[in-house]
Q: What sequence folds into this?
């Protein structure tokens, strides 16, 4: 516990971004170590100066850009003297004196006095209507002028000047930009990008006077314009000077600190007086002064660490990148703008008609600079390549086209190059797990399998899309190709396919029999294998195997979908998406009677009832059953919906009765259990309004018949169907689709959708079984029809009125009191 | 002190299944294993409050239906690497009847 009197006194001169970030860093490192007082010139709390241009353009308000409101200072015990600048530092007495006469002693002093706008020595500079662009007061002056005056001139075509010009234009003024150099933003852009920028801004109504040296500001009583050295005159009621900044060093100089262009600091951010630190635009480090925000944050971090007693923290200027904040104008640059000598190579992509320009400067196969205009989406990636000094030899021929193209052509669909991936790159979007977190877990806990990584980090444990990447990271870290376990689960070493083969060859017809025969570890099996075994046995022995409800996930056991709050959803089957008024009425009446919180149209052309309590389910089902509605199996690894368009019945483009065919397919297939859910759709013409080409089985009607397509998926990884065959009649559609369904039921691994199944076994194999082998097809279809005899019983009716599983829906007991 | 309350017969719970009992402590899930052992836990997964009674039971463990956390029925503890604990209650079988003890056996670790 640090005693109050032992706290050191820190005085901060400057309430801007760098100073306050340092204070924030310090508070988070050593909250009880310092009493902090902050002096600021401006009468405002700390705000984000970078966003002033957005305030000027009307895209943000002043309130939006406040970083720390006054309450923050109070909450953190920081004393704020806003609008009371420090006028003197007494280093021997270790005190500062403010304009109001306040004298505050310090143990440590932080100078964060920022910079001042550079003002050229021009006649007329002091005329009313001439402003700089530095702080809130300047923005207020510009806004006031824009309300009453029409014409503005901005001196300076750099980042700040252009943002000011654009803001004033947005405020309705006619704006001219006078720039000394031939092209705009010449410090951040090469000539080509600067020219494109000028072209686009001219199209947006800005006027430019390049090669323009301002000779005088004209006016009598108020500014009326500018006169350039070549004689041109630019009329203006407002002149904004934005030619640059210069470190604000006066106070430091007066106090006798070492000062050059800025206040000189070492890697420890201390000035020539070890009790005095300096950060931000006022400092000079290793001959460099600063105007962008990234190095300021780094300085703040190092300075706070030093003040908190970390003697190892050292500042080095990070590579810098620039973006321009003009809505709709995308500019990015970093590092070298052009080849400096013969060892540098420039790679350029240019599509001037589309306004896209991109240049990479490469030295020794490493990226040392980039200039981008128009499409800057890859700016971050290039900047990362630059910072890491990555060897581009392998991708040099395509790096100019951006990350997506460069990575795709590396042929790494699953995983990509994980060693190049940044540690903070998110791998698992579902669970928010970064690469760094995965690597740390693998190392700290000695993980060797994908399952272990999943268990410890949750990466790839939800949707599984990132499984390949996680596996690649595991491989990269462990250095070995850790085999993806092929075994079905921890209860056995047998694979899914081996277990299925044994079920048939050894005629295994119950789970206990199977587990005994195949040497299962654990008499009960586990939550992973039991649902799979239940499905495999059901598929192998229809009519014989007795479904084990204790091996069903809750949704399939209670025939409703459990929601995150423990309530359920109920979705009746609407055949082909068709319903009668009476059926809609029944649904509406059920919703009212049971106070069902939400009714929603589902993506599969049905009506979903959400938020039903478990004990309400039998009653809800009873009422729906009475109206002739049956379960939609919206919870099942089984047939879900058959989506249809209206087809030739109504549509002027329809070639066949798609709705009628959809209903026939749904009547054929409903109730069937499958390895994973199955969705169908029937479109009446190739316009494909039922989106049949992203379904497990789709039918696209044409004048000549019916195209059957399979293996589509609209889920996490969209997959368009593969065309299977065109048939002429509805009867053939039913036979072929039934046969495909049965083939999938027999070959698909539990929880494997048709899309990965088709990719795994190959379309050629499916065609061979369905198209080339007519007897085989008919046998598959016959097996499907046989199995359906035992499957097509409405589970809702059984439970609502047939007394099946009554125990499911009532508590065992209610203990009062 | 524990109040032993008759909540029903052993056969009212399916093997590898659970039933719930509404009590002043909240809903309690009473599980029956394949060996006819019974366990009583607060019906709330320590993770996101999922109804454990709806989970798959295997051995002396249940997998929560919402996010597949596995809870040890005898201790109420989540199986590593997940961390968390749900309250357990004493329950015993006497002459085929289930008796539930309604003073908590131990408090849940606060999440």
A:
């Amino acid at each position: 516990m640090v005693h109050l009197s032992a706290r050191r006194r820190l005085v901060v001169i400057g309430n801007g971004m760098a100073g306050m970030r340092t204070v924030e860093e310090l508070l988070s490192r050593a909250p009880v170590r310092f009493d902090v007082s902050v002096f600021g010139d401006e009468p405002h709390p700390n705000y984000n100066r970078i966003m002033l241009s957005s305030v000027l353009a009307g895209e943000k308000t002043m309130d939006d850009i406040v970083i720390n409101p006054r309450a923050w200072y109070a909450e953190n015990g920081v004393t704020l003297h806003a609008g009371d600048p420090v006028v003197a530092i007494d280093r021997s007495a270790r005190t500062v004196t403010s304009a109001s006469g306040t004298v505050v002693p310090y143990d440590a002093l932080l100078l964060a006095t920022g910079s001042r706008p550079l003002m050229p020595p021009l006649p007329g500079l002091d005329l009313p209507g001439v402003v700089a662009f530095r702080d809130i007061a300047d923005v207020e002056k510009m806004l006031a002028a824009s309300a009453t005056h029409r014409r503005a001139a901005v001196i300076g075509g750099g980042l700040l000047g252009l943002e000011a010009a654009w803001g004033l234009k947005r405020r309705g003024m006619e704006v001219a930009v006078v720039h000394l150099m031939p092209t705009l933003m010449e410090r951040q852009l090469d000539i080509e990008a600067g020219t494109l920028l000028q072209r686009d801004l001219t199209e947006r109504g800005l006027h430019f006077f390049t090669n323009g040296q301002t000779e005088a500001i004209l006016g009598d009583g108020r500014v009326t314009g500018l006169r350039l050295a070549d004689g041109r005159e630019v009329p203006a009621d407002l002149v904004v000077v934005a030619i640059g900044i210069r470190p604000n060093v006066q106070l430091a100089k007066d106090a006798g600190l070492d000062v050059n262009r800025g206040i000189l600091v070492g890697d420890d951010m201390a000035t020539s007086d070890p009790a005095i630190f300096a950060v931000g635009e006022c400092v000079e480090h290793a001959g460099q002064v600063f105007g962008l925000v990234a190095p300021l944050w780094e300085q703040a971090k190092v300075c706070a660490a030093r003040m908190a007693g970390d003697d190892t923290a050292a500042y080095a200027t990070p590579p810098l990148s620039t973006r321009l904040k003009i809505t709709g104008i995308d500019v990015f640059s970093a590092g070298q703008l052009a080849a400096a000598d013969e060892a540098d190579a420039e790679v350029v992509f240019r599509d001037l008609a589309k306004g896209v320009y991109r240049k990479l400067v490469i030295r020794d196969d490493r990226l040392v600079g980039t200039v981008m205009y128009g499409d800057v989406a890859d700016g971050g990636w290039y900047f990362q390549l630059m910072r890491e000094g990555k060897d581009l030899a392998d991708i040099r021929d395509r790096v100019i086209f951006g990350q997506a193209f460069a990575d795709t052509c590396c042929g790494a669909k699953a995983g990509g190059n994980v060693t190049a991936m940044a540690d903070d790159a998110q791998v698992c979007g579902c669970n928010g797990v970064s690469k760094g977190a995965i690597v740390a877990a693998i190392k700290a806990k000695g993980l060797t399998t994908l399952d272990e990584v999943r268990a410890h980090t949750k990466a790839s444990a939800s949707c599984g899309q990132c499984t390949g990447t996680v596996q690649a990271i595991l491989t990269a870290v462990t250095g070995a190709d850790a085999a993806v376990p092929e075994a079905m689960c921890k209860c056995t070493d047998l694979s899914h396919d081996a277990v299925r083969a044994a079920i048939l060859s050894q005629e295994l017809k119950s789970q206990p029999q199977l587990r005994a025969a195949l040497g299962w570890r654990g008499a009960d099996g586990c939550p992973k294998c039991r649902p799979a075994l239940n499905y495999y046995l059901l598929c192998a022995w229809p009519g014989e195997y007795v479904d084990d409800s204790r091996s069903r996930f809750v949704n399939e056991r209670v025939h409703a979908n459990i929601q995150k709050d423990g309530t359920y959803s109920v979705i009746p089957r609407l055949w082909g998406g068709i319903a009668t008024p009476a059926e809609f009425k029944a649904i509406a009446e059920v919703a009212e009677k049971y106070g069902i919180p939400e009714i929603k149209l589902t993506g599969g052309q049905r009506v979903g009832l959400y938020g039903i309590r478990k004990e309400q389910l039998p009653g809800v089902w009873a009422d729906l059953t009475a109206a002739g509605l049956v379960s939609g199996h919206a919870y099942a690894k089984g047939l879900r919906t058959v989506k249809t368009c209206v087809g030739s019945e109504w549509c002027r483009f329809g070639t066949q009765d798609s709705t009628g065919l959809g209903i026939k397919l749904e009547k054929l297939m409903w109730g069937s259990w499958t390895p994973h859910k199955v969705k169908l759709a029937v479109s009446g013409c190739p316009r494909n309004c039922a989106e049949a080409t992203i379904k497990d089985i789709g039918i696209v009607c044409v004048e000549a018949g019916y195209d059957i397509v399979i293996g589509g998926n609209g889920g996490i990884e969209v997959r368009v169907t593969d065309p299977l065959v065109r048939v002429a009649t509805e009867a053939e559609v039913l036979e072929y689709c039934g046969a495909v369904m049965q083939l999938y039921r027999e070959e698909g691994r539990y929880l494997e959708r048709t899309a990965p199944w088709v990719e795994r076994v190959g379309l050629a194999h499916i065609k061979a079984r369905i198209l080339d082998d007519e007897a085989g097809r008919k046998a598959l279809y016959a097996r499907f029809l046989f199995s359906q005899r035992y499957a097509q019983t409405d589970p809702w009716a059984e439970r609502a009125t047939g007394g099946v599983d009554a125990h499911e829906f009532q508590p065992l007991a209610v203990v009062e009191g | 002190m524990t109040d032993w309350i008759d909540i029903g017969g052993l056969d009212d719970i399916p093997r590898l299944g659970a039933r719930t009992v509404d009590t002043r402590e909240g809903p309690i899930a009473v599980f029956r294993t394949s060996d006819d052992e019974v366990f009583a836990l607060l019906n709330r997964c320590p993770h996101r409050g999922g109804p454990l009674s709806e989970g798959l039971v295997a051995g002396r463990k249940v997998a929560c239906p919402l996010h597949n956390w596995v809870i040890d029925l005898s201790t109420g503890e989540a199986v590593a690497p997940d961390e968390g604990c749900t309250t357990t209650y004493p329950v015993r079988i006497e002459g085929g009847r289930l008796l539930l003890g309604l003073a908590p056996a131990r408090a849940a670790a606060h999440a």
Remarks:
- Chain B is about 0% helix and 40% strand.
